[in-house]
Structure formats: structure tokens, C-alpha cells
Design goal:
By secondary structure, this protein is mostly helical. It is built from twelve helices and no strands.
Length: 286
């Protein structure tokens, strides 16, 4: 009985080709990121000025079919290695933001007092500030770097989790079985662990899938502005920045990493929409 519903949902998902293609593409991107040293045809940092701005579809020694950048580095290899940074930063930032948001949302929902209200007022204030603007301000304070970017994006993205988790707590803690558990002496921690978190996993997963796309765009934006990972590291945002002065003469330098970002973000949104339909069957449109 417990397995019948998930299996039915998976079978239904296979009837929608866009969802299937998006899932396959995401799996392919993750595999490429994990196996980048074995998948990439060349060293992503190998410079060969004789191959400078080599056009696509004309492979040569040290350059694959996607062409080369202004320093003669293979674009395909850099796109593959860039997926490691982009996906790792996005996943780590989502994990950090989710942890902070879930904990603060639980505290705000379970504590009826000024402390819980203060948490939500801070969330409201942060929610009014665009995430990228807040991230730029924090990076200006702590400085660029891989770990700093993860922390900055994680701190900037906890609000949706906290708001949703608090709403879940306010609904669940009024249920009769929760009131019965409290009458038997269950603590707030036990109520949160046994009753609130299991019912909120689906909603949190939906937020994480959608926010993963936002984190990737934010990381690419910071790298494009030179505030991301250290210079020379292959990231999609930095690759787009490398080609911004060659858009008319060497369009492929920025186009291919930009197209990769678009495809991954669209795939994440499609999968996130499917997860949302599972978590909220009343909103399902297929």
C-alpha cells in the first residue's frame, strides 16, 4: 500500500515526454559533473594561443566541436568542469538554506511568543530585498571564494523554507493526534520530529528543486561579475563573462555555457513543478 502511490506517480510521469527528457538531462548533467575528469576531452585550463577563438564544428588538436575561448581553452571541457562548480555550489547552498529555514520555521511555529514573531519579522524584511542584491552586499563584506559563495547564497535563501515550515507547524499542531501527544507529555522536539517534519518533507523538496535553479542563476551572476569563485576556475558564469567582448565575432564563447544554464534551469523547474503536483494533488494540471 505504501509503495503503490509512488509507483503510480512514477508511471504517470513517464507519460509526459517533457518531464522524462528533463529528468534524463538532469541525470546526464550530474553524471558529467561527477565524472568530469573522465568525460571531458581535454584539460579545461590548458591554454593554446594557436587555437584562440577556434570556431565550433571544426575540431582540432586540443579543441573539441564547441570551439575555444579567447585563451584557446576547449569550451566543451570547461562547460563539463563548470558543471561541477555550478551544481555543487547550488546544491550546497540549497542544503544550507533549507537547514536554516526549516530550523527557524520550526522554532517560530512551535514557540508562541516574541522570539517566534521576531524570526518571522526578520524573514519578512529579508524577503523584501532581492536575493541577488543581498548576495552582492554580503559578498562585498566577506569577499569572493567558493565557501563564501555557498554561505552567502545559503544565508540569502532560508526565508521560503521558514515561512512554509511555520505554516505547516501552525496547521499540524492543531490536529487532534498532536494535542493528544502533548497531553501525554510529548515535548516540542518530539512533536517536530515525529509529526511535523514527516508531513513537510514533500513541500520542502518542492522548494529545494525550484530554489536549486535560482541558486545556479545567482552563482552564475556572481561569477559573471567577478565575485564568485577564484579567477581561472571553470564556471558557467565566468565563461559567459569571458565571451562578453566577443559576442559579434565569437558568439560561441558565451552562447554554449549560457545555453547550458538555460537547459539545466528549465529542467529543474519542470521537475520541481512535478514534485509540486505530487505534494498538492489538487493543483495538478495533468
Amino acid at each position: 500500500m505504501s509503495l503503490s502511490r509512488p509507483l503510480k506517480q512514477i508511471r504517470t510521469a513517464f507519460r509526459h515526454p517533457i518531464l522524462v527528457l528533463s529528468s534524463i538531462f538532469l541525470v546526464f548533467a550530474i553524471v558529467c559533473a561527477l565524472a568530469a575528469p573522465y568525460v571531458a576531452p581535454f584539460d579545461p585550463n590548458l591554454q593554446a594561443l594557436e587555437n584562440r577563438l577556434a570556431p565550433p564544428l571544426m575540431p582540432r588538436n586540443g579543441v573539441s566541436f564547441l570551439g575555444a575561448d579567447p585563451l584557446g581553452r576547449d569550451i566543451l571541457s570547461r562547460v563539463i568542469f563548470g558543471s561541477r562548480v555550478s551544481l555543487a555550489v547550488a546544491a550546497s547552498a540549497v542544503l544550507l538554506a533549507g537547514t536554516i529555514g526549516v530550523v527557524l520555521g520550526l522554532i517560530a511555529g512551535l514557540t508562541d511568543g516574541p522570539f517566534g514573531a521576531a524570526i518571522m519579522r526578520v524573514a519578512d524584511i529579508q524577503f523584501s530585498v532581492p536575493t541577488l542584491v543581498l548576495a552582492l552586499a554580503l559578498v562585498a563584506v566577506v569577499g569572493p571564494g567558493l565557501l563564501n559563495i555557498i554561505v552567502v547564497l545559503g544565508v540569502s535563501g532560508w526565508v521560503p523554507y521558514a515561512r512554509v515550515m511555520r505554516a505547516q507547524v501552525l496547521v499540524i499542531k492543531k490536529q487532534e493526534y498532536v494535542e493528544a501527544a502533548r497531553a501525554l507529555g510529548a515535548s516540542d522536539l518530539r512533536v517536530a520530529r515525529r509529526h511535523v517534519l514527516p508531513n513537510a518533507v514533500g513541500v520542502v523538496a518542492v522548494i529545494a528543486a525550484v530554489q536549486m535553479a535560482h541558486m545556479m542563476i545567482s552563482e552564475a551572476s556572481l561569477s559573471f561579475l567577478g565575485l564568485g569563485v577564484p579567477p581561472g576556475t571553470a564556471t558557467w558564469g565566468a565563461m559567459i563573462a569571458d565571451g562578453r567582448n566577443y559576442l559579434y565575432t565569437a558568439w560561441w564563447v558565451s552562447t554554449f555555457p549560457g545555453l547550458t544554464i538555460v537547459l539545466v534551469v528549465v529542467a529543474l523547474n519542470v521537475v520541481g513543478d512535478w514534485l509540486s503536483d505530487i505534494a498538492n494533488p489538487a493543483l495538478r494540471d495533468w
